[in-house]
């Protein structure tokens, strides 16, 4: 059983940089009240965010951080399971996810997804969907059991009845079935291959016995043809070597051209910089009659003379730059030619490697043929050693195939048992009458007299006292809520019975503020008092006048845009 003790949060939604703490286990019944927007329902989002990394309501994760403080959003949950004390710390900006057991931080080497899976599957043993059906009943984003698909309903029931082990077993079984099928396919293929080898070896040995000389002649012919191919390849490699040498002889100036191009580039930048300075000087004397520094007048004759000198220098520099550009283009074109030559050399060298590899393979092939010819000439008696080895190998494969076939039959039987229609269905079938009895009990306790039954596929049949058939959708909102509440109480009872998703905590958000009439509210309060004997019930409501019906009242209010407990 999960025994929730404390929940605290700060910088979460409308809460500021001071922890808001709720003692979940101190009172049997707690009423949380406050005006709209005061932060009453924050407890739902804080609890589910701390456990599952997602808020209860449809709120984007970045929006959980308080819009004013904009950092250090933290939720902490303390609970126990048996003698083990747990604490979860989860936060945003910075991102934090820590799980403590008896004060010691659990290993965080795994990725965030695997760490969350450890929490859900090995510690609390419940996912968010099932948790919401047993612990939390909200008015906003809560999706009642009756509005879930049949697959989602089955998932929740399996969690409640602690049937996940069969799902895990089925997953492991699927892997084993796949492995078995692969092994059978592999063994079957190997059997066919060994049989083919036996047949081929027999034919080959018979052919060797009858045609040794003929085979030797044929292999000699192949050797001659292969020698001819090697000579052709040698000629091609020699021609390629000549082409490579010719290309290399044409690019001997590679280094000098590169250095010259680099030198010309630097010189051109220097000349261009000099021209820029000269042009600035000409512009200065054209546009200034007085020195901007000392404020003295510059004589016109001096200005004219200086402009003339600078202009002359500019013309000379431009002529030099033109000559330099021509020489630079020439060197650059030469460098391009060299690069093209290098590309050709690389292409030739790749061809040469290809020819050399082919030649090496052909030489090895010739050596192999010569060895085969030698063996043929020296062989007097053919001993069927290979066939004996292959037959032994085939016997081993036959034994392995029989073992795998037996394993396949066992796995097939296990597959039938672990299907939804197998063991799980049988267990669910035993609990269906108990579930239906509890549902109708709670419906009667709320003065709602209908016959409500779930079948093995979790489809409902609802009949009135006059045996008229109804569907969940045909009822009023108040009647639907009674059904949702009856299912909630039933799931908690089943969870406690199975000790699966059993917990001391039940949070109900605005159930007294919605569609229930006064009589239904009174009936519901009686049920709450009854189950509160062994649980801690938290009710979120706008109805502050109900506080005398609860052992504890917590009032939320907004102070300077921050939610706080009054």
Architecture overview:
- By secondary structure, this protein is an alpha/beta fold.
- It folds into two domains: 2-162 and 421-565, P-loop containing nucleotide triphosphate hydrolases (Rossmann fold), CATH 3.40.50.300; 191-385, Helix hairpin bin (Helix Hairpins), CATH 1.10.287.510.
- Helix content is 59%, strand content 14%.
- It contains eleven helices and 15 strands.
- The protein has helices spanning 42-52, 112-123, 128-134, 150-160, 164-249, 254-287, 300-378, 385-418, 423-445, 477-498, 518-531, and strands spanning 2-10, 20-23, 29-33, 73-81, 84-92, 96-101, 104-105, 136-137, 451-454, 460-463, 469-470, 505-509, 536-540, 552-559, 562-565.
- A six-stranded antiparallel sheet has the order 2-1-4-5-6-7, covered by helices on one side.
- A hairpin with a 2-residue loop joins strand 4 (73-81) and strand 5.
- Helix 6 packs antiparallel against helix 7 and helix 9 (423-445) packs across helix 10 (477-498).
- The longest helix has 86 residues, at 164-249.
- It is flat and about 105 Å long.
- The two termini are 32 Å apart.
